Amino acid sequence: MIYLDHASTSRLYPEVASYIREHIETDFANPASAHSLGLAAEHSVKDALKQLAADLSCKPDELIVTSGATESINTALQTAVKKLHRRGRRIVTTAGDHEATLNAIKALKQEGFDTVYAKLLSNGSVDLDHLAGLLNEETIYLSVIAVNNETGACNDIEAIRTLRDKLAPRALLHVDYVQAWTRMPLNLRRSGVDFASFSGHKIHAPKGIGLLYVREKTPYAPLILGGGQQGGRRSGTEHPLFVSAMALASKIGTERMTDANSQVTDLRRILLDELGSIPYVINSPEDGVPHILNISFAPARGETMLHILAHRGIYVSTTSACSTAQNAKSHVLTAMGIGGERLDGTLRISLAAENTEADIRLAAAAIRQAYEQLAAIGGRR
Ligand code: PLP
Rounded mean pLDDT of 87-104? Predict the structure, then answer.
């Protein structure tokens, strides 16, 4: 098996898998229990949050453990709605944000909110001039993706924060850092963002666990009410083992970031070299993150290529996993002005340092063969 779909989800780091195996039968206590087992579980959550906060440059108390980024994104947005709806009705995001943000915001349009979307430039990052034109005194929420999950295009969060401060000072700023975490240094304290979302399963930790960062003194309203866990900010029994596993993955990913990025950059270059003379167009920008390569093999259809490759044990995707589930065309590439055969011919190949050079050479050969096979029968099947 050659797994090249790391932007969809990642395999556990071997160290994280061993940690879970070693502790899953023993570390089952409820961190809210008053006995010694419960206290030990509570301590393990505290230690994990300290590690996570150190990696993200924030305070442990500013982190809330959630079920993943989708919950974090919804919690941040609903906070703005609950706390600020009397101050304004405008909610701003970008045309390239993740479905979790887009669909949560879309639902608010029906409730009478004025929901608007900043355009993307052809390189996949947000058009800052257009964004500036959308921000006003009525704006209560601005949500932006830091690294696009389909193309790897990066947004300039500092510039966006400055625009918010100047043009929409009442707006709470949320950043979706899911694809940025452990791929670039993050300093939440310095970033000036109010909310930030993170997902464990994109950084070689388990699924079903993530983080919401809430800057100190930012208004907050819990989405999930119940037993008052996490200081009432997110009820529901925590999963101490998975919180620790996420902290371990964050530590490993942060420590290895520089090496992993250079390994992945080399693998990406080898992949492109090995594709040889078959025609392709790269949809990812040159200054994007190295681990996401969005590439079009038109007139071959991406979906057909994906299935031919999967048959050979090579796993890639066409668009985000969420769009695939909804059978939709990529809203991100469409917003970049890409359409027709180039859009239909797209594959997203997402790499990690665990991929080997041999894997990449085999994958490139298989892509070449799949392309040639399709070209021989007219490419469009
Ligand atoms: N934001 C981005 C950029 C993503 O890639 C994903 C994952 O698909 C999400 C949000 C949602 O994350 P989760 O699967 O943890 O809910």
Answer: 98
